Amino acid sequence: MGLLPKKQLVLRRKDERSTKKTNVVTNIFYQISYELFAMLLPLFTAPFISRILGADMLGVYSYSRTLATYFGLFGMLGVKNYGNREISRHRDDKDLNLWFWSIYAVQFFASLAMLVLYIGYTIFFVVDNQVIAAVQSILIVDSMLDISWFLFGMEQFKKTTTCSTIVKLLTTTAVFLLVREPGDLLEYCLIMGGGVFINQFMLWYYARQAIGKPVFNLKRSLAHGKPMLILFIPVIAVSLYTMMDKLMLGAMSTKAQLGFYEAAEKIILCASSVITAFGTVMMPRMTKLFSDGNVRESQRYMKLSVEAVMASSFAISLGILSVSRLFAPIFWGKDFASCAYILSALALSIPFSGFANVIRMQYLIPNGMDRAYIISVILGAVSNLVANSLLISIYGALGAALGTVIAEGIVCIAQCFAVRKRIALQKYLNCIVPFGVAGLIMAAAVRVIDHVAIVTIPWLLIEIFVGSIVYCSLSLLYLYYTRNELLIAGIQKFSKR
């Protein structure tokens, strides 16, 4: 006889839970593997570029790219988070293609308008480096074609990471072959912008079957406008303390200071991208769990995410701070030695941004708490603008770095305040304190070595090795003890007998 329907249902649910767990683990593996790959590539390209282009040319690149990226942000509106969330909610619907095209239509026409405005800006207002500014318009076209939010919502992380990995390998090879002197800044801009352009076409190829033929529905597209604009407010607010600091540095300080900041920030962004990978993967999963009313499973995922993210955050933050004195001149060259202070300051923002990322991507956005999210990032943006106005004129790039730390701290506190009555924050804070203590002990051990170390690669490797051993040993000891409390208690009770 066959299985009873009830037993079949139970087995099916078990299989579904097993598949979901595997998908989450697999997606995290793909995303973190890519982020690690993306983090390692600059270790090869950044020293080369900093020496070839120099601080001034790197500052020109940073300023023009940041300005073009702002236009691209206005073209994307809030589609990154909104599109991801809506596709994850409706990915099983029959009219999925209509959902995609109605959202993408808003993105396309908004980006087209921004492209026209940017071209007008470069023609009538840009005087210096006009050709460089014009070439950066590729970034706005990239924004127009970006549908990564759709694949993220479908939890197709293997496809996005495969595309990005291939493109990064191609662009890295092109940089080494074509950028040979300071005058090759134009080639560098074309390579970096063109790489993203190729990546977008590859994403369209992968998504072609799921999205189907274009379907335009004006009424549905207009309906997406308001919620996209709501989620666009925090995007702009966040950009004020992630990109506006570069524009303010370019206006209030020198291009060299901007070049120093660009170099240091790139390392921080590469390192922290491993942390943000958790949020990228988990947001569509958490959205689906909340929409299905599966609170228990969502809480379990969130606790695991907090531990993983904060363990990584303290390791990266305090590790960078500890070795920055040797790292900066070795990595970028003697002319960039002052980057050590900027790098150390920016590293302090990582634990704040890491914890806020978990709260934002795994609770606020999946639960539609857009108002709390908006308020938190507006507070961060305002505090950053005030801090930059006061500090950049005095401390230059270091002042901008301190402003970023202040902004990230305020955003983290504001988002924690918004969810204080909904989730057990104290429980999460208790489980991350040991990682912070382990990080401080690691930093103290490395600083002892740093007092006698000279600026050479062997000494830098010694500091990294010692720091890694200390942090990993303490963290693993904590995890072993907390995960085996019952086992240890049983052994102690048996030994007393």
For the structure shown, list the relevant keywords.
mainly alpha; 497 residues
Short description:
The protein is mostly helical and about 500 residues long.
Structural class: mainly alpha
Query: Helicity range of the residues?
Result: over 70%
Principal-axis shape equals: globular
CA-atom Rg in angstroms:
24 Å
Mean pLDDT: 82
H/E element sequence: HHHHHHHHHHHHHHHHHHHH
In terms of DSSP E residues, the strand content is under 5%
Low-confidence stretches: 1-22, 486-491
Major sheet details: none
Provide a count of the helices.
20
- Could you give the distance between the termini? 53 Å
Describe the structure.
With 497 residues, this protein is mainly α. The chain contains 20 helices and no strands. It has helices at residues 5-40, 42-76, 79-90, 96-124, 130-135, 138-145, 148-153, 157-178, 185-211, 218-242, 244-252, 255-291, 295-332, 339-347, 350-364, 370-395, 397-418, 425-450, 457-483, 485-496. The chain is globular, with a radius of gyration of 24 Å. The termini are far apart. Mean pLDDT is 82; it is low at 1-22 and 486-491.
Question: How is this fold's topology laid out?
Answer:
Layout: H1 5-40, H2 42-76, H3 79-90, H4 96-124, H5 130-135, H6 138-145, H7 148-153, H8 157-178, H9 185-211, H10 218-242, H11 244-252, H12 255-291, H13 295-332, H14 339-347, H15 350-364, H16 370-395, H17 397-418, H18 425-450, H19 457-483, H20 485-496
